[in-house]
């Protein structure tokens, strides 16, 4: 566990009552940010440390304000340092949904998709739009998986994977574009009481409609009954005119394949730097999800190449 820096401690002590403070690190995610829980004698808070990523802190504050204006459930911000290195916010507790059993999936999907519908209503002119080149660059590091796992790949197979990257981005670019959380999975949701809150939303942008649905229904940890997924997707598409019902599953599988390639490439980059090695077991899970998506898209040649690394 990482200890808070003296600067962070000094700032916290300057904004909270002069009581005995306890500061402990929360779960480390795949980012340069660190989160700490601050316990006072009467309350608890969370501090986001963005000393190494001030731009992220700026985006977080802006998106938090947008989400609050749309009544999206997200943590309240209580204060921030002058240089935005530290942000003091509401402590939502430890019931992060990737570590909790969900007893009624239909109720969960209904609740969280209601939050997604609110996000769709955000004014698009206030958000950046992800470009073709950005989507393509997100999967650039994927091919490093073969070297990392010491797997052979010939030039023909390499060209096939490069072509896959472009096909996925072309398909994503043709999807309806909506305000997107960009990582709408259970590890970015916290349950407090009967309410589900969204976190880690600073990358909100206008992007392909399939991205958040793929993140929700096909995360790497949880496998849901396909009938339950289909029921939720059909209901959601009926409530959103921008979604063409006969294309929605294609949207989701395309987005899932791209998402898995992006995350695998990101993991390899971190692993090569000696970071996030505790997430190495997740690598195979994302590759299996990628194989599933390619299978559903009838991309058998690409699927066969990827299956070789499992």
Task: Report a brief summary of the structure.
The protein is α+β, with helices and mostly antiparallel strands. The protein contains eleven helices and nine strands.
Average of per-residue pLDDT values = 93
Q: Beta fraction of the residues?
A: 5-15%
Largest sheet: 5 strands, antiparallel
Tally of DSSP helical segments:
11
- The proportion of residues forming helix, as a percent range, comes to 40-55%
Low-pLDDT parts are none
Radius of gyration: 20 Å
Q: What is the H/E string? A: HEEEHEEHHHHEEEEHHHHH
Query: Total strand count, please?
Result: 9
Biggest sheet: strands side by side, in what order?
Answer: 1-2-3-5-4
Please render the helix and strand layout as text.
Elements: H1 6-15, E1 22-25, E2 34-39, E3 44-49, H2 54-69, E4 77-80, E5 86-90, H3 105-120, H4 132-137, H5 144-148, H6 155-174, E6 177-180, E7 189-192, E8 195-198, E9 205-208, H7 210-217, H8 226-238, H9 248-272, H10 282-296, H11 300-307
Antiparallel strand pairs: 1-2, 2-3, 3-5, 4-5, 6-9, 7-8
What keyword list fits this structure?
310 residues; alpha+beta; 5-stranded antiparallel β-sheet; two-stranded antiparallel ribbon
What do these coordinates show?
- By secondary structure, the protein is of the alpha+beta class.
- The protein has 11 helices and 9 strands.
- The strands form 3 sheets. The chain has a 5-stranded antiparallel beta sheet, with helices on both faces. Strands 6-9 form a two-stranded antiparallel ribbon.
- The longest helix is centred in the C-terminal third of the chain and has 25 residues.
- The protein is globular, with a radius of gyration of 20 Å.
